[in-house]
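Q: Could you write out the predicted structure for this multi-component system? I'm mainly interested in how the pieces pack against one another.
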Amino acid sequence: MDITHILDGLNDRQRDAVTAPIGNLLVVAGAGSGKTRVLVHRIAWLVEAEGASPGGILAVTFTNKAAAEMRGRVERLLEGPARAMWVGTFHGIAHRLLRMHWADAGLPQNFQILDADDQLRLVKRVMRALDLDEQKWPARQAVWFINHHKDEGRRAKDLPRNDADIYHVTHLKVYEAYEELCAQGGLVDFAELLLRSHELWLERPDILDHYQRRFKHLLVDEFQDTNSIQYAWLRVLAGTSADVWAVGDDDQSIYGWRGAKIENILSFRKDFADVQTVRLEQNYRSTSTILRAANALIDNNAERLGKNLWTDAGDGDPILVYSGYNDLDEARFIADRTQSWIQRGGSADDVAVLYRSNAQSRVIEEAFLRLDIPYRIYGGLRFFERAEVRNALAYMRLISQRHADVAFERVVNTPPRGIGAKTVEAIRNIARANGVSMWQAAKEGIARGLFTGRAAAAIGAFLKLIDDMAGNVKDCALHEIAECCIETSGLMAYHSRERGEQGIARRENLEELITACRQFGGELVLPLTPTGEEAGQASELEEFLDKAALDAGEYQSGGTAAQMMTLHSAKGLEFPLVFMAGMEEGLFPNRQTEREPGRLEEERRLAYVGITRAMQQLYFTYAETRRLHGSQSHNWPSRFLQEVPEDCLQEVRMGGDVSRQFRTLHNGADDEADQDEAGVRIGQFVTHATFGEGVVLQAEGHGDRTRVQVNFSRAGAKWLMLAYANLKTVGD
DNA sequence: GTGGCCTCTCTTTTT
DNA sequence: GAGAGGCCAC
């Protein structure tokens, strides 16, 4: 068979990785070194050169997007569908396994996936039942505790019961109660998917054996992002019979906060037999200036496997640094530069604006709107996470399974229909007392006259509503079911009654959901393509609901547009023009991470990921003052800027009228004055301006030395101010 | 039971 | 600045 097409265009190292003899291999692949390409070609190599059966290949990634792309590229390379191959996310594959082996895994056949929001609600309820003060015991922390231990493979029973630590003991109680509730309701959260399928391996050697016989080649993408349970799962599955081919980059490990273990890369070499290592260090993406910056920055991290990216590409332009006087100015600058990129013949598609936190996107979005530049925002609230969409899904869930308590609680009084907290509480109690679902409890409660007249009528109407809907949509297509739920339940009317833009947006989202349902059957993008023997029994409706939980619906329709996203979601992507916005201490590196050990290095890796997204031109921008959480804050430029070699950088000065130099102006001593003063050098004559809320800045030009008075409207302001020359822009 | 208004807190990243 | 929860009038 002619296999040259698999090797064409690969460099030597890449070929080494693709054609490595069957056996365990670790590919340490730097940013932009063709990682995905190599992985895809490896699969093709296995099939065409090694004669591997596609059904014996399992490829795991972390995001649905990556999985879909991988499958697409493999199929293009092999020139045909590879249905028998398993390609998916860890969660998706675990889910598939549990759907097929539900009984062996100790789950009810119709177990439901609990997404992050459901989980939080459930934990809150557990904590309320345990009489824990919500102020003192934030539910989020309990959720973190639970997930953290599950990610490490520990159930409540595996944890020490009598610990001196009240924090531990209390959370353990919550964990236990939560586990019990999940078991009763047949609920499986994200971490549980992994944990349980790992346990399935351990407890059912026959099933493990079946899959070990089947999967001979395991490929793992983004290996640095695996957590303990994923690693363990993989190790057990591989056993001694399969080879593992893993690609990763320790410098791009940015998910330590949710349990990812870079150490897995090191453990891999210890735990698996004869692991060969291939390094991909030639970068095909960026200019050498950009690479030099990235290398210098990441060199500040102590814990690294060590690797140095290099490129044949020329220097390219320096990285441009812009210091906005506030976040609005920063945003406007980014939009301006994007516009001129487009005017010079570039495409909006080429441009990405990256930031540390989603909250930063708004001002940038507004700046793009003002200039009429098309843009697309990734992240934030995803489609399937929006309240109105979740409400509609809950109705669909109830139609499919009446005993789905999570869904029941969610919509029993949404839209409001006279079933208040008290009544719901009563239903819950009946359910708990009798060990039945809330649906059943509501029914029995009515029959036995346990509710007041008004409540009984309201509940009865709700039960009937659901039953009627279910009857009406029996033979309907998925999108008709959705439509029926949205209309008949009164959700559409309820949400569109909401005032302002919000109501309009909700309405549109509900319509969008109907569209999504309509398209669902067509291009079924399941985490795994089931083969005939394995296809589950689930109805289309149930499959859709699973998908909604597992794949938050990263939703974007076509059209060229500049992209805005967090640094985290930019991993794996590349753009000719990249802006990294908000390069400020406190924001990036993020203040929250200061205290936790090791987190600064992770922030730095995040910066490394950001820088290496850029192909031709990179901008760092920051704002000297920024509105954050509703109030003004002043931040120093990020330390990461100083970690980049100075000769890679060039400061942008706006027009001729800006020349700015700033100093800490200081001040401190209360007795000094009610006016803060300091000498600030600004190149040019400046008069005065206002900016921010009631803050007046006055300056008088004396050539190079200008005396600036900073009057804060707030008493006792103790900080310093920065001086701006471009004052005509102030306050807009 | 509902809806409006108040205050409070919490601000990261997401399969 | 937004979302959640508490409180009060209807």
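A: Regarding packing and overall arrangement: The radius of gyration of chain A is 29 Å.
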